[in-house]
């Protein structure tokens, strides 16, 4: 015959399971047996590893940012070095050209006198003179040689007066041409690169309205 269990009506009203009910749950209001339980070795190991990983990630992030800053600094230094190198190259090239120009300027000035003498001889010789052809050939060869060294002859007949390369000896009235036109070249000028060795001596036009 089955054993009868006596249930206290008060316990039934309060929802307290009778002793030996077999559901394994602690009585309501009883303390949690897992509370305050210490973490086992595996949990401690996992927590320690996680903390170290976070520290390593933070350290690596700082190191990466530092490296990025250093790389950008080196890039800027490289840009400046390249710019300085280009500027230095241009400066050296300019100084070499100026030194070369200076070194031959005096020699060219001496040759200009020979060019003037040959040119004067050509003006005084007729085209059918036997000497004319020889003098013309010599003069052409000399002008060509000077041109090979960057020397240019300036004979601005019909051009506008340019005070950088021309020197006006006098003015003459000529209403058929704009004021400031070179009417006559008394003596040709010479330049080397952009340096004037001798300005061209010229007569420049002016209009009648500019007359006295």
What is the CATH-assigned architecture of the largest domain?
Answer: Alpha-Beta Complex
pLDDT < 50 stretches: none
Strand order of the largest sheet: 1-4-5
Q: What is the fold named in CATH at topology level of the largest domain?
A: Hemagglutinin Ectodomain, Chain B
Number of strands: 6
**What is the count of helical runs?**
3
Secondary-structure element order, N to C: HHHEEEEEE
CATH class of the largest domain: Alpha Beta
Given the C-alpha coordinates, what overall shape results? elongated
As a percent range, the share of helical residues equals 40-55%
**Global mean pLDDT:** 80
Strand content: 15-25%
Rg from Cα: 53 Å
Number of domains: 2
> How far is the first residue's CA from the last residue's CA?
158 Å
Structural class: alpha+beta
Q: What composes the largest sheet?
A: 3 strands, antiparallel
